[in-house]
Structure formats: structure tokens, C-alpha cells
């Protein structure tokens, strides 16, 4: 049994689905179901006794303590977070509450639980914290990619809140001996990503004939990794990572934002041509994001050499799969965008 937090979000849901497709070890999935959490992502697990869903906040330490005592998981995998940089610029408070204070509460609960373990349960326990490459700050065009030794230089409230959480995780290992693992991953793409993030936003807006907003001149560079490859990296770190260690996960696949948007437009032209003309006519350069990092790039040598991890998906095939998924799931997109899903959560749980 493992406890996953944030398992109804984009990466968490992909991870839970992958996990239960690979083996039968059950998952307790604790998620607050914010706007970004969507149980529809896990619809194929309905009635599956290997998946126990709990709607809760990672900041509710007493509840987490009860769950740990009751289910005795061998690991906690923490995906739960506020994750969107633009939202963090407009409203940083939730980011500090969930990403810093929430992770602190989860660590406290895990510390108490771990202190009570003995024998094989004690030896096997891991606290795996999922983080981002954005904690390392921004690179110039010819700087080497981020290694795990790179200094933390977060620039947005989002990355600063994730950096704060990463530091707490590190401290809980050094101070209390909690067997932690931290992964710092580059930008993910794939099915079930909320259409506020670049790739699903471009697909969704293009199909609706709406502008495709691009910050500045579109020359900011990101490294992109297919979400299934992120999940396989996390599984590998959980299996064989050294307690206390940090592992970068990335695709070594750098793209400027404008090149990605043009690529998606061209693929959509091929799959679903628009009689009004090529989709790139919709590209709209908008005022740059404040403090916009120029470039992120990940050096994943440690994960490759120590744990033998390799991404399976190249970018062209990953993008094809992603576009195909969004073309096949217009209802999913329309429901999360329209707020119909929020109404359903309110009905089920009495709030939203
Ligand atoms: P997401 O926003 O899609 O999902 C976050 C999930 O956490 C949602 O299900 C939400 O309901 C849940 N959640 C939020 N606050 C909570 C709380 N207080 N208690 C319990 N659950 C809560 O995010 P994502 O893109 O899937 O990212 C998951 C993790 O991976 C985050 O920690 C993020 O920082 C990290 N990460 C994301 C990317 C990326 O490209 N998306 C890259 C690297 C790292």
C-alpha cells in the first residue's frame, strides 16, 4: 500500500493509473479536489478495491496521521500542490499554504508514523516528494543544464513555494532521519492536463478558433517530458533511490515556446484542418509574464546512470499521443473548462 497525495491532478492521476496498471499494490489517494483535481481522470478505477479515494487537504495533519495509522503504507508520494505559475503571480497565498505549510504538515505526520515503525516496515518506508526544475531559477542560452548540485534560485511565488517545500524535505532527512527522496522534473505534457497549461491550452484554443497567447516573443525555452516517462522515473526512484537523495528528471528535449506552438498547429492542420486557414494564424503575442524565466534545462545523468532510467517517448510521438487524446476527449475538456465538474464535486462533497 502506498499513500499518494494530489492523485486526482494531471501527473498524480497518470501516476495512479500507471501504478495500478503495473501491479496490484493498492493506493490511498488523498486529494483536496481543487479546480485542478478531477476524479473523472480516475473513472476507469471506479469500483476497483485497489484504489481508495479520500477527499482531504494535505495540511490536515490529524487526518493524515489517522490514514497512516490505519493503512500502514510503505511510502508517501507527494504530488499535491498548487502548480500554475500565472495563478501564483495573481494569488500567491494558496501556494504558500499548500506547497509549504501543507508539505510541512505531511512531513510531520510522516515523521511521527516513521518513528513508530520497526523491522522491515521501518527499513522500507520512503517519503517521495515531487518537485520541479523551476526551483533552480533561469539559465542563459549557453549555460549547462541544471544538475542536482545547482543552487536554488526560484523566481516566481510558485517556484519559491516548491523550493521551500524541497528544503523542508531535505531538513527532515538530515535532522530526523526521515528516508526522503526528492525528484525535480521539467515541464510535463500528456493526457489529463488542465487546459491552462501551454500544450493543452494551445490545442483547446486552436480547435475553438480562439487566439493562442504567447508570452513576449515566444523565445523562452523549456525542457519537455511525456508524463508517462515522469511516472516511470518516479517509480524507479521509489524502488531504488538512495534515502536523502535528489534526482532530476527530464527529457533533454528543449524547445522554445513559439516552436512548440507552431509544431502543434502544424499537427492539428494535419489531423483536423480548419476551413478558416492554418491554425498558426491564431498566434497572439501578449505582454510577457513578470519575472518570466528565460530557459530551463535538466541534466538527468544521475537518474540515468545510478538507476538506469530512460524516457520511452520521443517528443514527436508524445505530442501525437497527446493531441490524439485531446481530440478524442472533447467532453473532458469542456467539463473542466465550463465548471460543470466543480458543480459535481459540490454535489458529492458539499463544497467545491
Ligand atoms: P495539478 O495542478 O494538475 O494537480 C495538483 C493536484 O493536487 C490536484 O489534484 C489538486 O486537487 C491537488 N491539491 C492541491 N492542493 C491540495 C491540498 N492542499 N491537499 C490535497 N490535494 C491538493 O498539478 P500537476 O501538474 O499534476 O503537478 C503535480 C506535482 O508535480 C506538483 O507538485 C508540481 O509542482 C509537480 N511538477 C509539475 C510539473 C508539470 O509540468 N505539470 C513539472 C514538474 C513538477
From TrEMBL:
<keyword id="KW-0456">Lyase</keyword>
<dbReference type="InterPro" id="IPR020904">
    <property type="entry name" value="Sc_DH/Rdtase_CS"/>
</dbReference>
<dbReference type="InterPro" id="IPR005888">
    <property type="entry name" value="dTDP_Gluc_deHydtase"/>
</dbReference>
<comment type="similarity">
    <text>Belongs to the NAD(P)-dependent epimerase/dehydratase family. dTDP-glucose dehydratase subfamily.</text>
</comment>
<dbReference type="InterPro" id="IPR016040">
    <property type="entry name" value="NAD(P)-bd_dom"/>
</dbReference>
<dbReference type="InterPro" id="IPR036291">
    <property type="entry name" value="NAD(P)-bd_dom_sf"/>
</dbReference>
<protein>
    <recommendedName>
        <fullName>dTDP-glucose 4,6-dehydratase</fullName>
        <ecNumber>4.2.1.46</ecNumber>
    </recommendedName>
</protein>
<keyword id="KW-0520">NAD</keyword>
<dbReference type="Pfam" id="PF16363">
    <property type="entry name" value="GDP_Man_Dehyd"/>
</dbReference>
<feature type="domain" description="NAD(P)-binding">
    <location>
        <begin position="3"/>
        <end position="322"/>
    </location>
</feature>
<dbReference type="GO" id="GO:0008460">
    <property type="term" value="F:dTDP-glucose 4,6-dehydratase activity"/>
</dbReference>
Amino acid at each position: 500500500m502506498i499513500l499518494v497525495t494530489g492523485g486526482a491532478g494531471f501527473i498524480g492521476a497518470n501516476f495512479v493509473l500507471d501504478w495500478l496498471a503495473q501491479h496490484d499494490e493498492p493506493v490511498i489517494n488523498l486529494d483536496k479536489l481543487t479546480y485542478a483535481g478531477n476524479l473523472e481522470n480516475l473513472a476507469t478505477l471506479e469500483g476497483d478495491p485497489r484504489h481508495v479515494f479520500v477527499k482531504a487537504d494535505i495540511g490536515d495533519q490529524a487526518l493524515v496521521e489517522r490514514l497512516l495509522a490505519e493503512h500502514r503504507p510503505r511510502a508517501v508520494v507527494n504530488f499535491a500542490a498548487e502548480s500554475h505559475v500565472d495563478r501564483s503571480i495573481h494569488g500567491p497565498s494558496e501556494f504558500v499554504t499548500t506547497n509549504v505549510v501543507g508539505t510541512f504538515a505531511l512531513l510531520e505526520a510522516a515523521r511521527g508514523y516513521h518513528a513508530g515503525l520497526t523491522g522491515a516496515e521501518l527499513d522500507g518506508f520512503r517519503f517521495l516528494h515531487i518537485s520541479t526544475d523551476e526551483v533552480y531559477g533561469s539559465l542563459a542560452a549557453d549555460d549547462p543544464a541544471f544538475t542536482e548540485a545547482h543552487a536554488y534560485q526560484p523566481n516566481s511565488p510558485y517556484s519559491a513555494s516548491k523550493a521551500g517545500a524541497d528544503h523542508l524535505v531535505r531538513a527532515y532527512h538530515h535532522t530526523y532521519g526521515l528516508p526522503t527522496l526528492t525528484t525535480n522534473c521539467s515541464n510535463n505534457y500528456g493526457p489529463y492536463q488542465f487546459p491552462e497549461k501551454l500544450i493543452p491550452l494551445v490545442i483547446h484554443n486552436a480547435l475553438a478558433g480562439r487566439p493562442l497567447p504567447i508570452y513576449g516573443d515566444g523565445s523562452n525555452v523549456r525542457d519537455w517530458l511525456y508524463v508517462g516517462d515522469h511516472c516511470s522515473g518516479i517509480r524507479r526512484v521509489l524502488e531504488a533511490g538512495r534515502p536523502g537523495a535528489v534526482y532530476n528528471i527530464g527529457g533533454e528535449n528543449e524547445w522554445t515556446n513559439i516552436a512548440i506552438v507552431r509544431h502543434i498547429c502544424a499537427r492539428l492542420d494535419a489531423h483536423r484542418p480548419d476551413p478558416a486557414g492554418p491554425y498558426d494564424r491564431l498566434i497572439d503575442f501578449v505582454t510577457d509574464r513578470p519575472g518570466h524565466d528565460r530557459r530551463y534545462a535538466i541534466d538527468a545523468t544521475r537518474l540515468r546512470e545510478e538507476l538506469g532510467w530512460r524516457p520511452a517517448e520521443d517528443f514527436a510521438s508524445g505530442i501525437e499521443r497527446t493531441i490524439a487524446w485531446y481530440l478524442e476527449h472533447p467532453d473532458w475538456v469542456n467539463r473542466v473548462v465550463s465548471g460543470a465538474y466543480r458543480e459535481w464535486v459540490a454535489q458529492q462533497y458539499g463544497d467545491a
